[in-house]
From TrEMBL:
Organism of this sequence: Natronocalculus amylovorans
Location in or out of the cell: Membrane
Bilayer topology: Multi-pass membrane protein
GO molecular function, one term: oxidoreductase activity
InterPro entries: COX15/CtaA_fam, COX15/CtaA_HemeA_synthase
Protein name (record): COX15/CtaA family protein
Zinc among keywords: no
Functional pathway: Porphyrin-containing compound metabolism
UniProt main location, coarse: membrane
Lineage: Archaea, Methanobacteriati, Methanobacteriota, Stenosarchaea group, Halobacteria
């Protein structure tokens, strides 16, 4: 007899783990932007000689809280992979979740190096290390997202075209959230909070675009191609937003062009899906257009 409650399904567990990982990336950006990654006296896993620092909003606590959430997320990622091996989510979900677990030691190691050596050696607290930390985090997040999408694949009432349309709408919301905080369009101050909001909105848009690719891959290659172009451009803008390269006028111009590419991809995808992609009773795809 299972002690697991009926509402706790693999797909919901995977979705929660993915959502927590998204929050963890955002929290990591805030931690780095506030300089809190250099707190805790460059100690790891202890923080200033303590297992738990003073529970007040200060650099030590921000860094410790980031580590705490990372620990929880790590256990959940392992749990997701273990559940997938017990039959949850299907073959593709198992592959994606397993790859996410295999990347965990690398991500933990990079994080530990980042907050301990503090630039004492060339590959310590430096741009390449931060870039590697972000890239691995985004890779793990993508694998978890794919795990979740695979788990939900057979639990949708909407046809693939309508799913893609909904995913693109989510992308639009994410872009609307991140654009005011983008360094390419300085509408608001790009401080620590602004960077966090930018990354949060960008990740939501990223979720929508990846979901669009998955839902439309076998039904409409035009939509999946548009989403692929959009997600590639979005990925680069996220790297620009993390100061991976010096933010010159040229980089800002390139960033604006990339934002334009993302916008065109999303609008074109929405136009095409709204134009009438449906699934007939035999499982085929019908594309209707008005002349």
């Amino acid at each position: 007899m299972s002690i697991r409650p009926d509402w706790l399904t693999f797909r919901r567990f995977a979705a929660f783990t993915t959502g927590l990982t998204l929050s963890l990336i955002t929290l990591g950006v805030y931690t780095a932007a506030t300089g809190s990654g250099l707190a805790c006296n460059a100690e790891w896993p202890l923080c200033s000689g303590q297992l738990v620092p003073a529970l007040t909003i200060n650099p030590d606590f921000i860094e410790w809280f980031h580590r705490f959430i990372a620990m929880i997320a790590g256990f959940l990622i392992i749990g997701t992979a273990a559940w997938s091996w017990r039959g949850g989510g299907g073959k593709n979900a198992k592959k994606a979740a397993t790859l996410a677990v295999l990347l965990l030691p690398l991500q933990i190691s990079i994080g530990a190096v980042t907050v301990t050596v503090s630039g004492l050696i060339p590959w310590g607290y430096s741009v390449p290390t931060h870039a590697a930390h972000l890239l691995v985090a985004l890779t793990i997040f993508t694998l978890l997202l794919l795990t979740t999408l695979e788990a939900y694949r057979n639990h949708h009432r909407r046809p693939p075209g309508k799913r893609a349309q909904l995913a693109l709408a989510v992308t639009f919301v994410g872009l609307a959230m991140s654009l005011p905080f983008s360094r390419a369009t300085p509408m608001l101050v790009y401080d620590a909070a602004g960077q966090s909001w930018f990354v949060t909105g960008s990740l939501i848009a990223y979720v929508g675009l990846v979901a669009t690719i998955v839902w439309s891959w076998n039904t409409d290659r035009v939509v999946s191609t548009l989403a692929s172009v959009g997600v590639t451009a979005l990925f680069v803008t996220m790297l620009f937003g993390r100061d991976i390269v010096a933010y010159t006028g040229t980089v800002q111009l390139v960033n604006l062009v990339l934002i334009g590419i993302i916008a065109v991809s999303v609008v074109a995808g929405l136009w095409r899906t709204t134009g009438g992609i449906t699934t007939d009773s035999s499982g085929g795809v019908t594309v209707s257009r008005s002349d």
